[in-house]
Design brief:
elongated; mainly alpha
Length: 214
């Protein structure tokens, strides 16, 4: 005889070990590390100190940079032809050393050409510079020829170890000075300078006439 009543589900109990403890247990969860508020505060203080230090360092360097730029701007700039003459004259102390003397006078003229005419003479060989010089309108033909001869003679002492007498070295010095004098910028007087000179001349002539009449 069969019945149509609800079916009963019977769960089997967990298999027990010999000592009565279940044989299957979940793993123990790892411990949760709790960060102290003092640790957060320490990192916050470190970050604030770093930002404050960066601010003052940046301000310090910018202020010093501005100060240096202001000093450089207010400092009078020595004209290139005056610097060239000083360098040429300083080379005279080394007349006893042919090679060193020629290096110094050659560098003096090369730097002068760069400052005065923006010709890249110091960073080029003599051949490269002279080739570029041919197409430059900064110098006339006579000045180019003088410069060509001057640099070639300096190269003989610098690289070929050619020995020169003191008189020849002094001649190189004079050629350099003459070249600078011919190519230095013309001094333009102030607009009122000529008028002041004329007024002073007129006044002095008038005084002379008065003294002569008396």
């Amino acid at each position: 005889m069969t019945t149509n009543g609800p079916a009963l589900l019977i769960e089997e109990p967990l298999a027990a070990s010999t000592n009565g403890v279940p044989s299957e247990l979940n793993d123990i969860r790892p411990a949760i590390e709790i960060v102290s508020l003092w640790e957060y505060a320490g990192w916050a203080l470190f970050l604030i100190a770093f930002l404050v230090l960066s601010y003052f360092l940046t301000r310090y360097f910018l202020r010093n940079r501005k100060k240096r730029m202001t000093e450089q701007a207010s400092r009078p700039i020595t004209p290139s032809h005056i610097l060239a003459r000083k360098r040429l004259d300083a080379a005279l102390e080394h007349l006893h050393d042919t090679r060193l003397f020629c290096v110094l006078v050659s560098d003096a003229i090369r730097k002068y050409l760069e400052d005065r005419f923006e010709l890249r003479a110091p960073e080029r060989t003599t051949e490269e510079f002279l080739e570029e010089l041919q197409s430059s309108a900064s110098l006339n033909a006579s000045q180019k020829e003088t410069l060509h001869s001057f640099l070639k003679q300096c190269d003989l002492a610098k690289f070929a170890r050619a020995d020169m007498l003191g008189k020849e070295l002094k001649s190189l010095h004079d050629i350099g000075l003459q070249f600078v004098s011919e190519t230095e910028p013309e001094v333009i007087s102030a607009p009122g300078a000529k008028l002041n000179q004329e007024v002073q001349s007129t006044v002095s002539e008038s005084q002379k006439e008065r003294s002569h009449d008396s």
